[in-house]
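assembly run, all chains below
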Amino acid sequence: MSTTDPTIARVGGDTPTPAAASAVSDRASRRASIEEAVLPPLVALLLAAVVGDVLILSFGQSPGAVYRLLVDGTWGNAYGFGQVLYKATTLVFTGLAVALGLRAGLFNIGAESQLAAGGFCAAIVGLLLPVGIPSLLCLPIYILAAALGGGVVGAVPGVLKARFGAHEVIVTIMLNFIVLALLNYLTSTRLHVPDTLHTAEIGSGVLPRVSDVVPSFQGSAANATILLALLAMIALWWFLFRTRRGFELRAVGLQPHAAEYAGVHVGSVTWRALSISGAIAGIGGLNYVLGYKHYYEEGFATGAGFLGIAVALVGRSHPIGIGLAALLFATLSQGGLAVNALVPKQMVDVLQAVVILAVATSVPEVRRLLRGARRSAER
Amino acid sequence: MADPSASTAPTPAIRLRDIVKSFGPVQANRGAELEVARGEIHALVGENGAGKSTLMRVLAGMYAPNSGQMAVNGRDVTGWSTADAIAAGVGMVHQHFMLVPTLTVAENVVLGSELTRGPVLDRAAAERAVRELSERTGLVVPPHALVRELSVGQAQRVEILKTLYRGAKILVLDEPTAVLSPPEVQELWTVLRALRDQGDTIVLITHKLDEVIDISETITVMRAGRTVARMPTAGTTPQAIARAMVGRDVALALDADYAGVPAVQQLGAVPALLEVRELSVSSAAGHPVVRNVEFSIAPGEILGIAGVEGNGQTELIEAIAGLRAATGTIALGGRDLMPLDVRRRGDAGLSHIPEDRHERALVLDYSVAENLVLGQQHRFTRGAALDTGRILAHARALITHYDIRPPDAALPARALSGGNQQKIVVAREMSRDFKVLLAAQPTRGVDVGAIEFIHARLREARDQGKAVLLVSADLAEVLALSDRVAVMYGGRIVALLPRSDASPETLGPYMTGAERAA
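ok done. output:
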């Protein structure tokens, strides 16, 4: 490791003058850091809107009409809004999962299979539980099962990285294939209801839907898992920014050598972070299994794990940002169905891609990861 | 003040007028001036952050100035490119080598302007060219050796050869002696004087004032982005230069300042606070980097380790701190440290100022307050949560006591100057409950004022009966602070002398490995 002063590259040989630093007041620096956090996603959105306009015009449609349709079909009515909430709920979990990894300097690409494993384990437990137990009693058991399912899938790359230095990106990508194939095998050969690709329905502890309370949400899949997602956001915020473990985890992500110096065992933070990350993604599986269909089905949330990466990046790995980003991506994906009458719904995929690309090239998390990858490649 | 009109010399080699260069809100140069006569060795001095390197990068075409005029040999070259600068014979030797370790010396020298025979690199011609250049300049390096096998001093010669090979007649060297032992510095001086005698112009960026006196003919002093003084070297003193650099009188770390063995230690027969026996460390590749090192430090004693960087000092310190696997024994006040991890060693009374401020000692994106508890975060908790109230109170007290500027606990450490960042580290490590202090390069890259402050704190720790292990590449610093001086070479302690027997002359041969004792 060289002792190169990172500011050398930036400011040219000498650190910024104290005069410049002292001119920066506390409030100004906080405003700057908020701007730093909020600006890239906003610019990304603007860019996506421009690209969207061009695409819509190329289909001979009016952008105004298409966007109006998109809004009407999502936030414009209770059903559409319910669907947005439902999709956002899953994305909050996978987004938080990826964000926890990013905060520790780890890129968890495995939320896809961790989510599936969490849902699968919850469904199995549901099949084993006797019928008629009150929901509130079952819920902790389900959460534990889902967390365990996702957590184990997350722990594998964590332990491999901590023990042998295996790169978590490779391991999580490969595990996605293995775990999804395994779950599909178990479902389609052992557990499925004949002629379907899903398990039998669970008997106890299903969560109430929003439509049980607000009838106008009739038909939408939004359910009480939303509350779990909110709780998870608060819990992760508290953990990351208020606890000693969170302080140490973020230090590992920012500067592993400094964390080591501060008495942190980088290896154990690594495997713990990836395990917890997997567990959070796993709990996301409850949204479908416990809140919507009440069984495990092959591919119940295809893409939600990968989209979680985008949510975490656009949300700047901050729980509040992740909540907003999850709503954004849920809106786009639900809105794709709504605008299908005027333009192909894949247009929305393009918009998502533009947002992701624009944010990914501008956020420091990605730059840091790339730097880390380059460093380990040099070694 | 600089007064360009005062120079009556013919066309100067370099004339920079009123250069302004800013990076976002940071103004690195705010009206800098530099005038260098042809065929002289010119020292450009100033504190960290004074804008020396920026000014030289402007000269080398790496940055375009926001305003100001640049002339080289009388020609207006304002805002030229690096290619223009090279073509006009201006070459820069950087502080951090830009060499390809897996290529040979000759290949590195010709890289970018290769001699070819058809599509094939003409290796023989390259080696011949390098050998000729070597002989002419006195920069001797084996042309076919791989760069990764060279010593730091040799690598630097390659760096200079590379610049000369491209036809540089104006040579800018950025802190060239930071990595050299005293004899290597003398060799470099010989080479630079020879180049000057052949008509080359040399600008030397440095902050070591004795070097300035030693080698330069004219001195330009910069402070806070401006040129504040230009003087002939003959007739000036280090104190005068330091005053111009800082803007006030400062106590310089001169080895003559050493105040003598403190009373605590003269009692004799005090049990050692830090005891290191048969300590060995291997590199990741399995090579021994610290070999069988033994020493002990008494309460109220500073043991200084001198030596050229890269001779095992870093590994020695990290092994004692628990950051690196090692064999042997380390005892603190009689307690075996080997089975303890980093945190427990800290709790046992070990304090550590690491040499790498930006990678190890600070989390740059964390606030000043958070950095002031780094490594002791487990002492500032309430249940699982951090006790932010106590962390802030702790920060406010230390910011006042150690005069950390700006006095804002919420600012990220990154926003502070190098000297103030180092004050955070020093404040944190000196305010914890400790018996033994490891201080590695405690004043690297900090300004003269902060050096004075940090030295005072180290002496204070010594006077309170702590044991201090000081590692510094700056021999003057080792001699100014230490009660005993050890020299590390090739992973071994090759000399261990009482302060009274240590001087640059006696230590030099050990630092180059020419001599061994101990």
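Chain B touches chain A through 67 residues (CB under 8 Å).

Residues 94 and 174 of chain B are 5 Å apart (CA to CA).

not gonna interpret more than that til we talk
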